[in-house]
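CO-FOLDING WORKSHEET

Operator: S.A.
Ligand of interest: S-adenosylmethionine
Run index: 286
Mode: holo prediction, single chain
Checklist:
[x] sequence pasted
[x] SMILES validated
[ ] output reviewed
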Amino acid sequence: MTLTDAPRYAPTWLELREPADADARARDLIDPLRQHLAATLTTRGSLLIRDLGCGTGSMQRWLAPQLDGPQRWILQDHDADLLAFATANAATLAADASRVTVMPRHADLTQLSAGDLLSTSLVTASALLDLLSRDEIERLVSTCVEAGCPALITLSVTGGIDFSPADPLDDELTAGFADHLRSHVEGRELLGPDAGAAAAEEFSQRGWIVEQRSSVWQLGAAHADLTAEWLRGWVPAAAARRPGLDAESYLTRRLDALATGELRATVHHTDLLALPHGATTLLGAA
Ligand SMILES: C[S@@+](CC[C@H](N)C(=O)[O-])C[C@H]1O[C@@H](n2cnc3c(N)ncnc32)[C@H](O)[C@@H]1O
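OUTPUT RECEIVED:
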């Protein structure tokens, strides 16, 4: 696959999910991360952070203002349009009002090498892992470990969804969507809902300190536009893996329940912080 035929994510979809993503990411991973990065700041004077699969840049806008010190971010994506948006709309101030700058990198993240991460203080990613294969996750983890570069990987979808009120088709469609995420794309078998656990296992096997937290989207009336858009994508994708179900009626029932303010959907994800062996943080020393 070349950079120009990479699958596209609509910027409108990424913008719509940004507030729910910001609410969902696990904030209690930030303190140990800040503590780890404080040592980097003392020795290097600034942070170099690389956001992989940055999309419109929501991870940078969420995290940069929570970290202290001058920061340089490399925003990496294989979609040039998303990258232009992310660069133009980046956060510019750190928690302590230090300057934050960004540089775009139009490149395939599966080709990242330990050399690319020389001097990098942190790798971040958000809503990315399910798009990768086991080999690609293994390579990404090995690259971080070889470079001694910590990683904060958020919003890896787990496939779990709780609906209220319940509907008889919920479970079948939820399983169908998980199968959809595990699809084969150009000879690659995507890990989908298993990707977060696989990354945690890969870091742990290499002796790194791994902390995982649940991060959930709370969908419903408070995020009505996002919820409707999500249902319009989720239901057909799930139904394609469970032919024979009356998915059209299901979608109508769910949109009607959303319109009356009745529908709640909890969409489960997982966040992961991986720190080098020997790091001393609030999480404890390895
Ligand atoms: C679901 S979006 C998430 C975007 C952003 N991180 C966020 O949380 O809003 C996944 C992003 O990863 C990018 N992406 C996927 N595979 C990639 C690859 N192999 N190399 C570079 N970017 C990739 C896509 O272009 C897209 O912007």
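REVIEW:
The domain at 3-158+187-216+268-285 is CATH 3.40.50.150 (Rossmann fold).
DSSP finds nine helices and eleven strands in the chain.
[x] output reviewed
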